[in-house]
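Bit of a strange request maybe. I'm writing a small parser for structure token strings and I need a real example to test against, not something I typed by hand. Could someone generate the tokens for this chain?
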Amino acid sequence: MNIDLQEGIYYRSKPPIGNSFCVLSTRSKNASQISEIGNAVMMIWKHLEHLKKGIMADLEIDKKHRRIGNLTVLVAYGPRLFEIPGSQKKKPKSFDDAWNFNSPKPGGGGQIFERSGISYSNNILDNHLLDDHVVFQFIADTEFYTNRAAVEVWKVLHKLEKNRGTAPLHITGMYTGFQRADHRNWFGFHDGVSNIRSYDRPLVISINPKYLNSDDKWTVRGTYLGFMRIGLNIEKWEDTDITEQEVLVGREKTTGCPLIRVDKSGKPIKDQRCPVAGTSEIIDPGNEQFRQHPPYGIGSQDKILHYSHIGRTAPTDRIPLWDKRSLRIYRQGFEFLVPSRDEIGLLAGLNFVSFQNTPERLYRALTYQHTFAQNVPGTAPLPSLDRFMSVFAAGVFFVPPKIQGEPFPGVQIFFNNAEITELRKVLSKKI
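Reply from user aminoacidic:
Good idea to test on real output. This should exercise your parser:
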């Protein structure tokens, strides 16, 4: 039986990740049985599989006019789904509420995790992703293809509601974004350059049977999706001195080279070997060795770099990547820009997407920074990038493996074996 991670997790070197991103979240309205949701997911999945070939159910389009756009589709499930009557599977043990995000405070704001230092926007009173049941991730060449996929999901749900009087799922949110062509973020620094090497990524992403009890063996080769919609205070950032920006990030702004020392006047010093001769930025070939967490100087003033963004989020440890105690996660980031009622008129931000074989990794990675007082004694921490960020939505979702011949990923949650056999027959029919 061929079992693999779902598409949409670009852990291999090829194909390249698409420019356009969309997460569409849905929730059950009034389904009395989980099979009702399963039938809706099956219909949506079938439509999306056809859409990846440029085929739409309500249009007889000639092959030469079909548009594909390298669309990938991923489906994932929230922890509340397993509470719906009739669920064929128990919620996986590692999908524990202890590793999920906090709810915002009643009056808005509040930390996403205790001791994380990262907070919700003060305007956010409710985080709907904590209660949503099914999410779809779309990645494609342009926003036309991801937007079209979102509309196709709506069409299926609308048809169900029209024909049956109600739809078992309704759309609760949609978050879109894009990848910058310059490999930088809204703060102007290179982004994603210190990610895990492609051949090591499955060790971090894929659920390891070593940590599973007998009830959870069905989740092997699945993963967990962590998502945060993060707003960035670019006005405050632009008013921050570039030298302080570089120390906060831990890299030189123009080249992206890592900082390794701070002189007595507080000026950061980069690794002088970077960038290598004939190149100008860390993203150029030949500079791979400078993309990871650098070794810092041993002077007392150098300790501040341990509190930089690189020092906080990409710590060096000797825990094997496959071990769930490791702090490493695999990230895929997509920027966004939307209108805002604030004085600046714009809200710039990041769709933070991570994949890890247990939600505990994400929790540990985001709360790690508060162990620094023990790791670097006697050093007053520099205020972190957290003060330039605020979270608008956040959630953790189980991404079941894709099994060859299955009607859709995660079908075992909704139906028993006999029912799945019947569904395979339905799937073989045309839309």
